[in-house]
Amino acid sequence: MAWEDNFNSLFTKTLPIEGGKKEWRLTLEEHKTKGTMNMNIRIFQTEGSYTGPTKNGFIIQANSLEEVEELEKAFLDYFEKVKEILS
Fold it and tell me: Which of 45, 48, 49, 77 has its C-alpha lying 20 to 30 A from 18's C-alpha?
């Protein structure tokens, strides 16, 4: 059974990496029967003998606006710390 059999993509944002051979796909998906929403953030192989999702990434259920805002703040704090270390 394919992923698309269970989920509808509501929108997708892509970010090419590794010279376009791979890309981040940030997708908001709705489960077709449960009605739940997932934030599916994964790296996809876009060139070569295999094209499709890699093991790199994560899927998080989007239960409420508050949970998404807390996650957003945690990511922003995390990225600020990474930028601080890299500079």
Answer: 77
